[in-house]
Amino acid sequence: MADSAETSPEVMLQFYRMLYPFKSIFTWLNQEHTPKDLFTNREFAFTLQGDVYLRYNCFSNAEELKKQVCALNPTRFEIGPMYSSRPSERKLARSVKSGKLFTPLKRELVFDIDMTDYDGVRTCCTSAGICKRCWAFIANAVRVLDSALRTQFGYHQLLWVYSGRRGIHLWVSDDEAMGLTDELRRAVVGALTVIEGGKEMAKKVNVRSIGTKSHPGDLPPSLWHARDEGSRIWYPLLDDQECFLSEDGWRTLLKLVPDKKIVETLEKRWEKQPGIESSKKWDELKVEVKGTGARNLAALEDIILQYTYPRLDAEVSKHRNHLLKAPFCVHPKTGRVCVPVDPNHVENFDPDAVPTVMQLLQELDKAGEGASECTTYWEHTSLKPYVDMLDRHVVGILDDVRRRERARAVLQHGAWVLVYFRVIQVYWYSRSRSQLVMDTWKASFLSYFTAS
């Protein structure tokens, strides 16, 4: 928990004035260097001191955004969709006389994974707490979700951002993702949701095809990678978290086993030997399951998925007008900056090592005169690698935009070429047809006089 002085209004104002990467955020949202509707019609919402909430703000460029942020000095700000008109003019747009509608048109496909949703399976922390150990759950979620979105949906402009406290956010900026309707967003989330049911429901994974009494049904191919990733980290996770060491833990495990005989056997054994480690309990379960049929073997796969599969906050992803905290904001409870995370090295990310706003300002002070001569002060702090990560991501987005524009130009050019050739074709056809008529009349005329 950050000291209140670490996120005081004075500290936050210094951060916004000198360290927040407004230009990088602008280019990322705008997907171009010159301002367009994707930024100018974008909603920004500010949370001010005293929990005052201001929605429907919009700006023409990065400089205007920075000026207003420094003037309001919010504790945080959030980003929404691009609307059909400027959010600040929504009342005019909604008026009957204008004939316009104020509706969200484009927005990144966003996801939110919160560590509190893992409280039923993690043992090292609870509630808002998070540490390097339980980060393993988040790391696995990132690997699984990142792979699914790339391989199953074809998206590749994915920006992962640490939430500053106990979770991680994902922003998907592909053009196809930006244009998804709410209905399609719900479909995407539905396809990626595996863990369902509240605390009262023991079995939360029910994704297999319809089976028979002896055969449980097949696991969808879309979940094979998630199953393999979960299996890869399963034993290290059990050794670290000891999910089945306590009586509540192993009884929860046995509720997921469909064979009552196996449950009774292990229940009696573990009651007599309560100190058996989680990994050994799992091995004993596997021994009992071996040779008992496909249904019990499938249950083991489902258990691994239940403990390791990403737990999504579906409501965040379903609607285009949902607001999500901007990258590089400071979390008011921890003082830590919401920095990008490299999905290829997510297991090495340490939430406790993320720079705090006070740490960054101290680094800036130590940089001295060298920093004062620079317009990008963050380059002299530990924020630099994270801003560089965002900038590299933006380069990829801009490359995609240029490729789309070139493809569009080729199609338009090709269309005009086709029109040109069609005109020539019609011209020559008409000319040849006219010549044929003339030749026919000429032949008829000559034959008439010859006959006479």
TrEMBL record:
Its EC number is 2.7.7.-. Pfam families: DNA_primase_S. Keywords: DNA replication, DNA-directed RNA polymerase, Metal-binding, Nucleotidyltransferase, Primosome, Transcription, Transferase, Zinc. One of its GO terms (biological process) is DNA replication, synthesis of primer. GO terms for molecular function: DNA-directed RNA polymerase activity; metal ion binding. InterPro entries: DNA_primase_S, DNA_primase_ssu_euk/arc. Gene3D superfamilies: DNA primase, PRIM domain (3.90.920.10). The keyword Transferase applies. One of its GO terms (cellular component) is alpha DNA polymerase:primase complex. It comes from the Eukaryota. Belongs to the eukaryotic-type primase small subunit family. PANTHER family: DNA PRIMASE SMALL SUBUNIT. This is DNA primase. The lineage of its organism: Eukaryota, Fungi, Dikarya, Basidiomycota, Agaricomycotina.
